[in-house]
Amino acid sequence: MSKSVDKYFSATVNCFKISCLFIVGMVLLLVWFWPMNSEAQSKPRQYLLALSKAEHTLTIVDAATFKVIAKVPVGPDPHEVVASSDGKTAYVSSYGGGRFHELDVIDIINQKLLTKVDTDPLKGLHGLMFANGKVWFTAEGSGSVGSYDPHTGKVDWSMTTGQDRTHMIYVTADGKKVYTTNVNSGTVSILTDTFPGKWVAKVVHVSKGAEGFDVSPNGGELWTAAATDGAISIIDLGSNKVSEKIDAKIFGANRLKFTPDGRRILVSSLSNGDLFIYDAQSRKELKRVNIGSGAAGILIEPNGSRAFIGCTADNYVAVVDLKTFQVINHIDVGNGPDGLAWAAQK
Fold this sequence. Notes:
Layout: H1 3-42, E1 45-52, E2 57-62, E3 68-73, E4 78-83, E5 89-94, E6 102-107, E7 112-118, E8 125-131, E9 134-139, E10 144-149, E11 154-160, E12 166-171, E13 177-182, E14 187-195, E15 198-205, E16 210-215, E17 221-226, E18 232-236, E19 241-246, E20 253-258, E21 264-269, E22 274-279, E23 285-290, E24 298-300, E25 306-311, E26 316-321, E27 326-331, E28 337-345
Antiparallel strand pairs: 1-2, 1-28, 2-3, 4-5, 5-6, 6-7, 8-9, 9-10, 10-11, 12-13, 13-14, 14-15, 16-17, 17-18, 18-19, 20-21, 21-22, 22-23, 24-25, 25-26, 26-27
């Protein structure tokens, strides 16, 4: 083989080696960064949604940094907010002391109001829940509950409770049971769809002023706190009867929530600066956390690590670490914060 040919062959081999090394290196870099990139893409975006009653806005907050991303104007007296299961849409009820009949639909991704749904003759929209693909609400001024179907854009069902001030609501995942508190009647309504379209109602007497309530994660109990006598009533949902009454003395009790694991119950009070924390098994008070002058809305992060409390009188949302039971931050979402919701987008 001539020297020129030998040189050419050697250069070609070297180029091939370098190309191979380059390709191997790129593959290794892709292998190295792919899991991190994939993890970043799969990590859901999570938002805290908070209402300002005074400013008539829905504030969208980055749940990781507590940074306010946007404020979206909503109806004239916003009280409660809920997010769709995909975290892309929010729904806000306008209350007006039982007079207003407006449900606002908000695009969370594009941070804008999509539409205002007129629910008349169902008036005084307040409590909200998203379940079985629908928005369920109380209409206090009409003594009713109803559901809104986002696919048709219409209110597709309603039922009267026959009670005074039907205020807060909880709906099972399958949409077959609806629970409400009726503040002035001092009762809990249990509405059951026994056959498609055939609903029956059961009324359980608790305490006058019963407003905030929640159903345990296992579906076995309903706890509600009453503002008037400060008592917590526990309803056994197997028998639909009050099984126990705790003289908690949480006067002005406003909201009550279970932690996701069902072990703890948090209760806020509009007339007290403490957040009351109860043990679900022992029925005993575990801790009181001072969060301000008084509070309304309670939201517990799905992983159970933090609670967000709407401190209406103090004009902030308090962030409570549920491991240390300490207030770790305050979020400014506008004056008169109240209703809170969690939105998680994949």
